[in-house]
Amino acid sequence: MMLLACNDSKLDDSIHDSIQGSSLSHFSIKDSVGITIIEIFEPFLHSSKTERYVLYPKLEGKPKGIKADIFIGLPIERIGINSTTHLGYLKELNKHDKITAVSNTSLFYDEDFQKSIQEGKVTELGSRSLNTELVIESDLDVLFTFAIDAASYNEIERLRTLGQPVVLISEFMESDPLKKAQWLKVFAAFFDDSTKRNANSHLQMIQQRYDSIKNQSMLYSFLPKVAIGLPWKGSWYVSGGESYQAKLIHDASASYIWNDYLQSASVPLNIETAISRSMQADFWINPGRLASKGDLSNSNIVFEQFSSFRNQNIYTNYKRSNKFGGNDYWEMGVVRPDLILSDLVSIFHNHANDSLIFYKSIFE
Q1: Residue 152 and residue 146: Cα distance in Å, rounded?
Q2: What pLDDT is attached to residue 1?
Q3: pLDDT, tens digit, 9 for 90 and up, residues 309-350
Q4: Per-domain boundaries in the chain
Q5: Could you give the 3-state DSSP secondary structure of residue 57?
Q6: Does the pTM of the predicted model rise above 0.85?
Q7: Which residues contact 195 (CB under 8 A, 6 or more apart)?
Q8: Per-residue confidence at 4, pLDDT binned at 50, 70, 90?
Q9: Cα 300 to chain center, whole Å?
Q10: Where are the beta strands (DSSP E) in the chain?
Q11: What is the CATH number of domain 207-361?
């Protein structure tokens, strides 16, 4: 039995947006009489289900008289994860040492974590998909994973019937960068009060810094036009005008050329239509794994006619990546949207390539 596994760094950003939901937060956390209740709303696109988890102290026993999809006794010591973003959250909390099993071991960016994998401290749950047998054998206190549709959710339910506590992390459904970062609170809920306070402090800092960068960017009078993405399997998937990527572009005081598509999911366009509008954009960002002007030219010679190509204004978000496809944009970036926003402001308004963290020019 195999379950879908995810590594966001393998997805083009516009494809990632294709599974995003509404702009509403998709979780709530409530503390009540020694227990913590976590609810996950619409855990995957078009789902009407609400997941309910109850966290309780192991020494006090499982609480009675309360309903939940799963009960998890605390503390937890053995964690499994199924996305590179999960590492980003747990590392920010300094709890990544509790990760004992992951899917797609080669696709994580963090060097220290890769060292733990090589030393056998972190085991494989499957290369391209989660393997049910390996999950059960790993003896995990909790598996953090996700569902993208009813079929993958049914496989998660099967894991639960086999006794594996599974928690759905649906940060990919958030179209607001700050709300995506807020999922740090969900991970922190599985640890002590000090960890929860650290999570809140981090998020307050991120909120303040993000707002400051956003407000400063509003002083620029010129709003450059920005294109995004790259053709994929015969179509050009562009992030919708209410997507995560569109929000970042807007907050960096730029004009996203596909803002008129009022949805958070991506929009598949025929390549000719996409090229026609993208050709006039001042900037082009996130062109997938194409990391040089040669890569773009070889992909399609017409790209050389783009205004962004002629003016050398094409930037990839693969600056912090490795040869296996691991990309820190989808690890550290998920809890540091302020750094991503800072990069974009520098690109669109200051052309300060030396200060960029996640981005780099393909012309370097």
Answers
A1: 8
A2: 39
A3: 999 999 999 999 988 889 999 999 999 999 999 999 999 998
A4: 207-361
A5: strand
A6: yes
A7: 93, 95, 188
A8: very low
A9: 29
A10: 2-4, 27-32, 35-41, 50-57, 70-74, 79-81, 99-102, 123-124, 129-131, 142-145, 166-168, 225-228, 231-232, 235-238, 255-256, 267-269, 283-285, 314-316, 360-361
A11: 3.40.50.1980
